[in-house]
Amino acid sequence: NGLPLPPGPRPLPLLGNALQINITEPWITYADWGRRYGGIVYSRLLGQDFIIINDEKIARALLDQRGAIYSDRPVIGTNKLFGVDFNTGLLPYGDTWRVHRKILNQTLRGEVVASYHDLYLRKAYDFALNLMDSPGGLEAHVQMISASLIMAVTYGYEVQTHDDPLVNRIQQVVDIITQVLTPERGALLMAFPLLEHLPAWFPGAAFKRLARPCRELVKEIMERPFEYVKGRMAQGKAPQSMVSDFLTQLHGDSGDAVTEQEQVMMEVAATVFIGGSETTSSTLYVFLLAMVLYPEVQERAHAEISAVVGNDRLPDFDDRSSLPYVEAICRETLRWQPVVPLSLPHATSSDDTYEGYFIPKGAVVIINTWGMTHDETRYPDAASFKPERHFNPDGQLKDEPIPVNLGFGLGRRICPGRHFADRSMWAAVVMVLASLRLTKATGPAGGEIEVRPDFTTGLAMSVIASPPDIECTDGSVVL
Ligand code: HEM
What is the spatial distance between Cα 309 and Cα 352, in angstroms, rounded to a whole number? Predict the structure, then answer.
């Protein structure tokens, strides 16, 4: 229609801008392009159109206000190959996705997840105790709280040990997905569809070796926990969970329609684990890392909790509104290192125009959340962890509750688990701050071992380079 594409880096023939992207931290390249070319950037990767949005206002104008165009997902050939095309987060914008979303919106809405308050506090308490008992097992404790929270809410399944076979299976699927199913690999497959059909031994097609085991694992992780809930319900012993609530509603019905609905619920439940476990654990890593690196923040939180909660009990949700600094720590954790730094890729389902630019149908739309939360004009000294930035000059906490945080995405595909994440994260953060002090570990010579923040990619997970020392303050659980 004669309109130009948004500005962007000059592409090379065939490869497009593939060689200009920092593969391990593409959000840094995209933020850099944002500074050079503006809030909306066009790039081409192996023949595929990419629209990269670095500006929150533009992201809201397109995803929130033009949801009918910007809510699709890119077609990634590997999703089907790996058996994960059932996942709500990867489904194209259409009827199946709508059915999934309806279930998710109902079962994870604010009022429903509020009914799990005791569960979040109990799991958070176990987490703090585990950290206290064996600080060196930090990674296992973080995995434990994330997996056990999600398994309890989804299936009413109590994870008993760090080595739960079911959780291990699900974790294997998550690992494969985050390694293999990236939009960049999707672009590679779209550019060279032949790769999908080459044998796994062929150079460049080695990733396919994981496809069959992944498909088998996916089948198992969908069916086994579902059958577990049915078995418990038959014995009259199933606690409240997403799946048991759903099956209770179906009670008495039979036939093909029920089988179909059960299949949908199996898919939604498996999605919840895949979508909720790594994001939860990554966020907790970021929080723990920040506490080790910023002891003054930790001290201020200890003082706030001490003043409000006292020394005779642990905090609970009734204290939440009286602990604004703890709230600000949660918000800053999501801002400082958004654990899904590029959100999930969206795609356009028809041509569009924006501010005189042409946006083609089928373009992959990347929301650079990391770039937005590190925008120096909005967050001065963005690389530093500063909960204070979430307060107004009059000392009041800003009116930006966690469920509207950019880290949960935008528009019709916004994270349906955000209310759950808000509450489960708060419980873990406040429980750790109320009962522990995190410090750098000491080396053999008695000096502090420096902590070098290092991040793995996939869904971006922070790893603390050396296990921190964790002390129970004053020998008691409460400060
Ligand atoms: C701190 C924790 C979490 C973060 C930062 C997070 C972030 C995100 C983001 C950025 C998206 C993509 C949104 C978009 O496309 O615009 C997403 C999607 C999704 N999240 Fe979360 N999430 C978290 C926890 C959870 C939890 C606990 C659950 C489940 C209980 C969950 C379930 C999902 C699902 C099912 C989708 C796909 C939605 C769709 O495509 O329609 N997430 N999440």
Answer: 53
